Amino acid sequence: MKHAIMIMAHKDIDQVCHLIDYFQDSCYLFVHLDKKFKLSKDERIRLESCRQVIKVYQKYDVRWGGFNMLRCELFLLNEVLKLCDADYLHLISGQDYPIMPLGDFFQFFEQYKGKDCLRYIHLPHIGWEGNTFSRLQYYYPYDWYSNRNRARYNVGRFLSLQKRYNIKRSLPKQFDHFYGGSQWFSITRETAKMVLSYTHNHPSFYRRMWMTFAPEETYIATVVVNLKNGKDVLFTNFRYVRMKNENGNCPANLGKEHLVHLLKNKYVFARKIELPFSSDVRDVLDQYFVYDNHSLSILENGGWNYDGYRLYSFDRIYFESLIRILQILDVDSVLDVGCGAGLDVALLRERGIAASGFDANPYTESLSKRIVADGQNVCVQADLLDDDTEAESPFDLVTCKDVIPYIPTNKIAKAIERLTRLSGKYIVLRWYDNDYTSELPINFFSTDEIVSLMERNGFRKFSNKHLEMTGKGSGHVCMMFEIR
């Protein structure tokens, strides 16, 4: 499957070239630079000399919230269809950044072959203009202003006048349902053809987008979802965008504090990477996500020796079930045994839960330091089988997820004994069942064997059926225990 990457940029050629380098010779690249940007001859040569770049454009004066944003997107779609045979078309900004190796990027979209990836909602929606059709009914002349702050001020005053004198446009009549969302998307070639064909043959809806606010956020989603009746259209574009006013911008300029959010979901791109502010997080992405060559080996005690993040998976169902239990049982302290890079610990702390963690991985401390909140204690390296691994006082709950399978079979009794000494109330265990397949060496333990070892050390299966984390599925067995 061939991919075309359409980049809309307005500054920082170094960042754009760094982004282009990621795609190597494996994708078709189309770059549009804002017409206002003063592109030097050397910079143009630098961009055009990249072998994967098909063409560099400076056709539109793109202004925030204005109509030219949509015009530029449709222009790029048309250029891709005209100049290459890409199967998938991805629209990104010059401040987007990939968060997986290129090989994984290709494999990722093989999973969604034939699907369109749009993050959209049905309008009106409480999250958009106070559950109104405001952006479709009033005039927003953002194309009149080159300065974004001045545009917001003047357009805001103009909007107030329209409301005062009841100047309101009727809703477009081309569709009964309207959709809106992120302008950034990944769509199939067939869908791109469909959008352009509709725009050419039925231009009235496209023209109606003039002076709507951010028309690109409405037009593409409305056309695609209506014409395809929602078939093969996903509700996500796999971009991480933090829609909060942080670090001087909304969406937020990403910093190290946002790394934890990139780890807990499956994203392809993150934005905004604003240099020099985001240089630290971009360096981490390069080292541990984009160009990750960190290998994993198994230590004698079963622990991982791994300086990386990508092989540590986040299980949202497990995590949210754990949160529910902690809240209902009023648990004050949690210990994550085998915490890996410390992601669950960081997320528990975000929820206001006093959580700590340790892992046999010698890189645990440095890995967790990048994702736990500043000023908080990081996770540490410790061996569950080490007699010196003690807690000053038992934790209310100990969670131990997918650690048991790596424990040597002749050490499992000691591991369970050490685990029970760390908890004063509850233990949640998860391990692999016989249906689980892994490229790493793992051991399988029966439920009866684990339950017997837990009972021998003073713990029994949790008796509250409404709260217990007991279950089997997806290659795992999960069970909760309480002290007798």
Main beta-sheet strand count, sense and barrel state: 8 strands, mixed
Q: Which CATH C-level class of the largest domain is it?
A: Alpha Beta
Number of strands: 22
| Uncertain stretches | none
What would you say the CATH architecture of the largest domain is?
Alpha-Beta Complex
Mean pLDDT: 93
> Could you say how many structural domains there are in total?
2
Gap between N and C termini = 58 Å
Tell me the quaternary state.
single chain
What share of residues are in beta strands?
A: 15-25%
Short description:
The protein has 484 residues and is of the alpha/beta class. The protein has 16 helices and 22 strands.
Which characteristics define this entry?
alpha/beta, eight-stranded mixed beta sheet, Rossmann fold, elongated, five-stranded mixed beta sheet, 22 strands, Spore Coat Polysaccharide Biosynthesis Protein SpsA, Chain A, 484 residues
Folded structure, characterized:
This protein has about 475 residues and is α/β, with parallel strands linked by helices. The chain has 2 domains: about 5-285, Spore Coat Polysaccharide Biosynthesis Protein SpsA, Chain A (Alpha-Beta Complex); about 295-484, Rossmann fold (3-Layer(aba) Sandwich). The chain is built from 16 helices and 22 strands. It has helices at about 15-20, 40-50, 65-85, 100-110, 135, 150-165, 190-200, 205-210, 215-230, 260-265, 280-290, 315-330, 345-350, 365-370, 410-420, 445-455; strands spanning about 5-10, 30-35, 55, 90-95, 95-100, 115, 120-125, 180, 185-190, 235, 240, 270, 295-300, 305, 335, 355-360, 380, 395-400, 425-430, 460, 470-475, 475-484. Helix 3 (about 65-85) packs across helix 7 and helix 7 crosses helix 9 (about 215-230). It is elongated, with a radius of gyration of 26 Å.
